[in-house]
Amino acid sequence: MNEFLNPKSMVTPGVAGSVVMFLSNAVCFQFPEIAPRWAALGLSFLLALCVMVAAKQKLLPGAGFWVVNSLIIFSVAVGSAGVAAKAGSQTANGAAAAMNFLVLSAYAQDSGGHKPVAPATAAAQTAALQAQLDAAKARVAQQEAQLATAQQAAAAATAEAQKAQADRDALAALRAQEAQDKDKTAKNKQRFFKQW
């Protein structure tokens, strides 16, 4: 217990956690596809393995110490990274608030009494509105093309229907002519074979 609760042994997890935090941040910054938590966990186990190899422990107790030490190093690294991130965001928010308070000329205000709009925000809103307008124009063009195609199909169907109607009328006229001719033939036969 005396070996564990002394200043030297208490500094070791802090230093190891800091090393893991710095290394995992550097690795994940250069390789964004690697998740920071997995990089930190892997580096924690690697650093603890180096310590266990240097200590030349027996296999079973060494494996237990390796896992426990790795998790302690990982916890210290994650905790210090969380504290650093929180402190950094608070500092950034404080700096932004101070800049907004001190640099009032960065805001543009219209005469209509609306809230001031930062130039960067106005540019972003303009870009977003332009993108929406372009998307709407593309949709209108697509719908106009679909309408033109539908109108062509309707015109073709109308022409086909008119042709079918003309064919039907011609057929009806032909049948009527045939019926008339049949009637005439029948009347002529009756006149020709009339009894004298």
Write structural notes for this entry.
The chain is mainly α and 196 residues long. It folds into two domains: 7-103, no CATH class; 148-196. It is 83% helix and 0% strand. α1 crosses α2 (36-55), α1 (7-30) crosses α3 (59-102) and α2 crosses α3. 9% of the residues are buried.
Q: What is the gist of this entry?
A:
The chain has 196 residues and is mainly α. It has helices spanning 7-30, 36-55, 59-102, 119-192.
Overall mean confidence score, pLDDT? 77
Return the domain count: 2
Q: What general outline do the C-alpha atoms trace?
A: rod-shaped
Radius of gyration: 45 Å
Q: How widely separated are the two ends?
A: 152 Å
Number of strands: 0
> What is the share of helical residues?
over 70%
Largest sheet: none
**Low-pLDDT stretches:** 104-111
Beta-strand fraction estimate: under 5%
Number of H- or I-type helical stretches: 4
Q: How are helices and strands ordered from N to C?
A: HHHH
Secondary structural class = mainly alpha
How is the topology of this model organized?
Blueprint: H1 7-30, H2 36-55, H3 59-102, H4 119-192
Helix pairs in contact: 1-2, 1-3, 2-3
Task: Give descriptors for this structure.
2 domains, 196 residues, 4 helices
